[in-house]
Input
Amino acid sequence: MEVNGYQIGPGANLIGADLRGVNLEGLDLSGAYLSDSNLAGSNLVRTNLRYSTLVNANLDDSDLDSANLSHAVLTGASLLRSKIGGADLSKANLRDADLSGADLYRSFLK
Output
C-alpha cells in the first residue's frame, strides 16, 4: 500500500517519513523502521507496530488507541497529548520518551 509516496507495510523503511495526519488505522507496520518520522496527528488506531523502531519519532496528538506497540523501540519519541488508551506497550522501550499529557487509560505497560 502506498501513502504519501511511501510504501507502507510490515518491515517498511520509513525513516524520516512525513506522515503527519495520515490515516493508518488497522494497518500492519510490524517491524517497520520509523525513526525520525513525523506521525503527528495521525490515526494509528489498532495499527500493528509490534517490534517497530520509532526512535525520536514525532507522535504528538496522534491516536494510538488499541495499537500494538509491544516490543517497539520508542526511545526519545514524542507522544505529547497522544491517545494511547488500550494500547499494548508490553516490553516497549520508552526510555526518554515524552508522554506529557498522553492518555494511557487501559494501556498494558508490563
User: Anything to note?
Assistant: The beta strands are 2-3, 6-7. The chain has one domain: 26-110. The chain has a mean pLDDT of 96.
